[in-house]
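Run log, item B.
One chain of 252 residues. Sequence copied directly from the ordering sheet:
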Amino acid sequence: MNKPKLAVSSCLLGKKVRSNGDAAEFRPLNRTWSEHLELIEVCPEVGIGMGVPRPTPRLVKDEDRISLIDPMNGHDYTDKMLEYAEVQSDFLVASGISGFVFKTDSPSCGLEKVKVYRGDNPQAVRDGTGLFAKVFTTLYPHIPVIEEVSLSDPLQEEHFLARVQFFNEWLSIGKEGWTASRLVTFHADQKAFLLSKTPDAMRSLDKIISKLFDSDEHPEHVALNYVTEAQMHLSALNKRERISHPMKRVVS
């Protein structure tokens, strides 16, 4: 089976691209995962021309708008980041990535609890999402994402890797073009895995499969709807699953 491709914030792979000129290497990615996954590095802040080192940009909320601001000179990077995020996200998905590992707390890449500043208040509230990460997850909600801090938990690590492998298998079959037969076969092959991870999802996924035979919707659209629904359910980690996915055993 081909190596799944995984997009990763560059600093986690040991690249010295952080605001202070350092890296934030997450060793399991560099030392173990790289043997079994094709890792594609991404640094949105460097990608839009921010230097290294640089002032740490801030997320600033003004009414309903979240902006990416240089706190030293007030320069607004929002539009540039939004444009870059859309283009780069499309590129990464077109290249066939099966997941994305984002840098925790980053104003560009953090998935949750990123500092957001409001008005003249010097105290930030941790209720934001990095601007690049927000665009990526909005455009492609069916692709598994996680922050590296969560990968320190073995259960979350296993769960994420299982989602990556599930999506990679979906991509591999879809390369030949989706047909009703291929989607039904994929669903049957994944039944034990899905039941072990998210039994509540089976009813909605069964309905999507049934829709193939009850409507004229193109199988490609049904397949995308299927994997989006599956990943929505898989994103919730509720319990210790009964089935350990092969990908976890490979990278351990």
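Observations after the first pass:
- The beta strands are 5-9, 38-42, 58-62, 65-69, 97-102, 114-118, 125-128, 145-147.
- Residues 154-174 form the longest helix (21 residues).
Flagged for discussion on Thursday.
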